[in-house]
Design goal:
Elements: H1 6-21, H2 45-48, H3 53-63, H4 66-69, H5 89-96, H6 104-118, H7 128-154
Length: 155
């Protein structure tokens, strides 16, 4: 056991205990009929409880309802949320509701709330460009507000 890792020594100990006990009475012997790549390789599907794929497919179509087998219904075209149409900086500033009384914490909170509602990953791919524009402008406005806040605190 010296010179072995803890894991190796545990495996060695378990192996010696298993050899000392002998085979368990309730253990099923391994399938010894499968040797090499002969006919036994495929095995007896009926005995193993496995069905061939044709039987599975027939059972699927036999039990499937007409609604399940019907072609998929067309997905309606998504409608862009109203707020994503507001991409001018003054509109986004109004959505952010920035005031002179902002603190670093309130600006961080507004950035997170705005991102939760407007992040491009949360919208349909057709509307992601507007969401990206809104996020860029909102981040720019909040960064500018934070810069001004730092300047005011230095005075």
């Amino acid at each position: 056991m010296f010179g072995m890792s803890v894991f190796q020594s545990v495996l060695e100990r378990l192996k010696t205990e298993e050899d000392a006990e002998g085979p368990a009475e309730d253990e099923q012997p391994a399938h010894t009929s499968i040797r090499g790549l002969n006919g036994g390789f495929v095995g007896n599907l009926a005995a193993s409880g496995m069905a061939d794929s044709g039987a599975v497919q027939r059972a699927y179509f036999d039990t499937a309802s007409d609604e399940m087998l019907a072609p998929a219904k067309p997905v309606p075209k998504p409608v862009m949320p109203d707020h994503l149409g507001r991409i001018r900086p003054e509109q986004i500033a109004a959505d952010l509701a920035l005031t002179e009384m902002e603190t670093p914490q309130t600006l961080t909170d507004k950035r997170r709330r705005f991102a939760a509602e407007n992040h491009p990953d949360r919208h349909h791919p057709d509307f992601r460009s507007n969401a990206t524009i809104r996020m860029k402008i909102a981040n720019m406005l909040i960064d500018e507000a934070q810069r001004r806040l730092r300047l005011m605190q230095r005075r």
